[in-house]
Each structure stands twice: as C-alpha cells, then as structure tokens.
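Lab meeting, item 3. Inverse folding demo.
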C-alpha cells in the first residue's frame, strides 16, 4: 500500500511538472508572437 501511494505521488509530481512546463512554453510563445 505504501509503495502504491509513493508511485501515485511520483506520477502526480510528473504531471504537475509537465503541465507547468507546457504552460510556460505556451505563455512564452504567446508573448513572443504578441
């Protein structure tokens, strides 16, 4: 059970990191093109 929870936290951490990364790229490209 403990390992499953650890895996879930790691997965969510990656999702948040990718989400923020893509959000930053989108904002950067939007600002440069605006």
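The presenter then showed the designed sequence:
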């Amino acid at each position: 059970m403990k390992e499953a929870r650890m895996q879930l936290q790691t997965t969510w951490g990656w999702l948040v990191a990718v989400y923020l990364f893509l959000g930053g790229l989108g904002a950067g490209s939007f600002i440069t093109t605006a």
